[in-house]
């Protein structure tokens, strides 16, 4: 375990920040410029629970990721000095917001800075599914003999009138829609804030039932809330267009993975692409075993500049709160 305390040489740190996971190189180098702050920096791997609780004790702030469980025990261990927890993520289901409020701790996240990267990844998965890229790559690597034929690895013609259904037309959903329109896809979406039948930048707002029945590809872009847990389940999967694909770059708990596996095995769905998992970092072995499923390890935001922006925003939120200012991107308990 390596602990690094960074500060301007002539200024003794007056406040301390626990950084649970190693940030990007660029942002880590920038920590030295923050006079009066000491940074206790963890490793690249997630800290063990005991280490997390020990190192946050007495800190004024903590920068954490989705792998850390931030709950009553965490806030009690930190003590009354803790003023802010900055999550390096858009999601915050790893944080007990009610416990944070009881302890008077501000919680922040990193929305907005990763929209483009996540949309890029989402559309890469759509293309990989529709054109069966991963299956074809595996076929070659396994050393199979082959001769070109008109039936070989035939998939979905993305740009020949395919329909994309977006569940959740927020920032990331709209970014995905822009990419889909560039591929000449018809785009429909659900959005509780807009009237049914209306059009937003070429995206038609429809009911969830119509979206599921119509879309060749359904992509999820909603937060994980009690109301969205297992939003995609056996019942909703049965409503999907036969032969459709499902993409999830949102949160693992939104999809009932066992129901998804059954829908694929029955042939009702043609395939799925998953970036976030119910038991993350554990991945259901049944998903791994199915060649129709494309898997990535929660890397939708993993562009170099994007990860720098995420880490920098988390640091900026900490600086704001410790300086007595409002954070840039606060999270409020519902």
Folded structure, characterized:
One of its GO terms (molecular function) is hydroxypyruvate reductase [NAD(P)H] activity. Keywords: NAD, Oxidoreductase. Residues 123-300 form the D-isomer specific 2-hydroxyacid dehydrogenase NAD-binding domain. One of its GO terms (cellular component) is cytosol. The protein is an alpha/beta fold and 334 residues long. It has 2 domains: 15-112 and 304-323, Rossmann fold (3-Layer(aba) Sandwich), CATH 3.40.50.720; 114-295, NAD(P)-binding Rossmann-like Domain (Rossmann fold, 3-Layer(aba) Sandwich). It is built from 12 helices and 14 strands. The protein has helices at 25-30, 49-56, 72-78, 97-102, 115-130, 133-141, 171-182, 208-214, 234-239, 257-265, 285-288, 304-322; strands spanning 15-19, 37-41, 61-64, 84-87, 106-108, 163-167, 186-190, 199-200, 203-205, 217-220, 244-248, 269-274, 293-295, 330-331. The strands form 2 sheets. Strands 8-9-7-6-10-11-12-13 form an 8-stranded mixed β-sheet, with helices on both faces. A 6-stranded mixed β-sheet has the order 2-1-3-4-5-14. Helix 2 (49-56) crosses helix 3 (72-78) and helix 5 packs across helix 7. The longest helix has 19 residues, at 304-322. The two termini are 37 Å apart. Mean pLDDT is 95; it is low at 1-9.
Backbone shape: elongated
When the domains are counted, the total is 2
- Tell me the series of helices and strands, N- to C-terminal: EHEHEHEHEHHEHEEEHEHEHEHEHE
The assigned structural class equals alpha/beta
CATH class of the largest domain: Alpha Beta
Q: Over all CA atoms, what is the radius of gyration?
A: 22 Å
Percentage of residues in strands = 15-25%
Poorly predicted runs of 5 or more residues: 1-9
**Amino- and carboxy-terminal Cα gap:** 37 Å
CATH architecture of the largest domain: 3-Layer(aba) Sandwich
Question: Numbering strands along the chain, what is their spatial order in the largest sheet?
Answer: 8-9-7-6-10-11-12-13
Number of strands: 14
CATH superfamily of the largest domain: NAD(P)-binding Rossmann-like Domain
Major sheet summary line: 8 strands, mixed
Question: What is the fold named in CATH at topology level of the largest domain?
Answer: Rossmann fold
């Amino acid at each position: 375990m390596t602990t690094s305390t960074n500060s301007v040489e002539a200024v003794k740190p007056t406040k301390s920040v626990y950084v649970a996971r190693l940030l990007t190189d660029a942002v880590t180098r920038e920590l030295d410029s923050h006079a009066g702050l000491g940074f206790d920096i963890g490793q690249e791997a997630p800290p063990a629970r005991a280490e997390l609780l020990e190192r946050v004790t007495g800190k004024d702030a903590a920068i954490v990721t989705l792998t850390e469980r931030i709950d009553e025990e965490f806030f009690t261990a930190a003590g009354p000095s803790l003023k802010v927890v900055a999550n390096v993520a858009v999601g915050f289901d790893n944080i007990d917001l009610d416990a944070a409020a009881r302890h008077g701790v501000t919680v922040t996240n990193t929305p907005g800075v990763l929209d483009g990267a996540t949309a890029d990844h989402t559309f890469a998965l759509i293309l990989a599914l529709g054109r069966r890229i991963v299956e074809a790559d595996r076929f070659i690597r396994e050393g199979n003999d082959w001769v070109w034929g008109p039936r070989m690895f035939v998939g979905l013609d993305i740009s020949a009138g395919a329909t994309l259904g977006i569940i959740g037309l927020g920032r990331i959903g709209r970014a995905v829609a822009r990419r889909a329109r560039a591929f000449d896809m018809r785009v429909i979406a659900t959005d509780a804030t807009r009237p049914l039948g209306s059009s937003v930048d070429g995206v038609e707002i429809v009911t969830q039932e119509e979206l599921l029945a119509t879309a060749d590809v359904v992509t999820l872009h909603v937060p994980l809330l009690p109301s969205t847990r297992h939003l995609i389940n056996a019942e909703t999967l049965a409503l999907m267009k036969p032969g459709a694909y499902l993409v999830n770059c949102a949160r693992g708990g939104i999809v009932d993975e066992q129901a998804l596996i059954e829908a694929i095995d029955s042939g009702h769905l043609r395939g799925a692409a998953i970036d976030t998992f119910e038991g993350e970092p554990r991945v259901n072995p049944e998903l791994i075993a199915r060649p129709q499923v494309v898997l990535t390890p929660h890397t939708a935001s993993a562009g170099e500049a994007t990860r720098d922006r995420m880490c920098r925003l988390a640091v900026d939120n900490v600086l704001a709160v410790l300086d007595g200012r409002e954070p840039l991107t606060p999270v409020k308990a519902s």
